[in-house]
Design goal:
- With 193 residues, this protein is α+β, with helices and mostly antiparallel strands.
- It has a single domain, classed as Multidrug-efflux Transporter 1 Regulator Bmrr, Chain A (Alpha-Beta Barrel), CATH 3.20.80.10.
- Helix content is 21%, strand content 33%.
- It contains 3 helices and 9 strands, in the order αβββαββββαββ.
- β4 and β5 form a beta hairpin.
């Protein structure tokens, strides 16, 4: 328990999903990463606010890694915590959120089966994303602003992307006060789309 709490408090040294990155071009204010196919433990919620749903989803997933699974196995914390956001169709519509923890390497082949029916293990396919990194304590307004900046940068560079769903990613616990790392991701448009 103490180790898990320590890992959550200090995100350095946590396992992260493997990816390959393209070299940044001059003036480019975003990264292009291709994440390898991997298993993630996830939970889905619907609502109006990303912050509330991330907190609820995080608690469910933290319970899972603390041993609330069929095998009663503790699973190491990983980073980032991602949130896949499928926006609602209108300004007053609920969005759909899928909050996920990357499954550590030692559990990739055989992840513990969740005990909570709201938690599931998913196999993510390889995906290529455009990534904008920013610091501070992320909130709904900040995420939206950073996402719009990423959209502007991609349009400026004539890059085709998928506008929904989009992802948010957080690397730090709420107790880390400085040098915080957050990201917004947009999917690269596939050649066959």
């Amino acid at each position: 328990m103490l180790k898990a709490v320590g890992q959550v408090l200090f995100s350095t040294g946590l396992q992260s999903p493997k990816f390959s990155a393209e070299e940044k071009k001059q003036g480019q204010d975003y990264e292009i990463r291709t994440y390898h196919a991997a298993k993630w433990v996830s939970t889905s919620l619907s609502g109006m606010h990303c912050d509330e749903n991330i907190k609820t989803g995080f608690r469910r997933l933290f319970s899972y890694i603390q041993g609330n699974n069929q095998s009663k196995v503790k699973v190491e914390m990983t980073a980032p915590v991602t949130c896949r956001v499928m926006p609602g169709d209108g300004p007053a519509c609920e969005s759909h959120f899928t909050i996920s923890f990357y499954m550590p390497e030692q559990h990739q082949d055989n992840p513990p089966e969740p005990s909570d029916s709201d938690v599931f293990v998913e196999q993510r396919k390889e995906l290529t994303v455009y990534v904008r990194t920013y610091s501070g304590f992320a909130n709904d307004t900040m995420r939206r602003e950073e996402l719009l900046k990423l959209v502007e940068s991609l349009k400026r560079d004539g890059v085709e992307f998928v506008d929904k769903p989009y992802y948010t990613a957080g690397y730090d616990s709420p107790f880390k006060l400085t040098n915080r790392r957050n990201e917004v991701w947009l999917l690269k448009k596939a050649e066959d789309q």
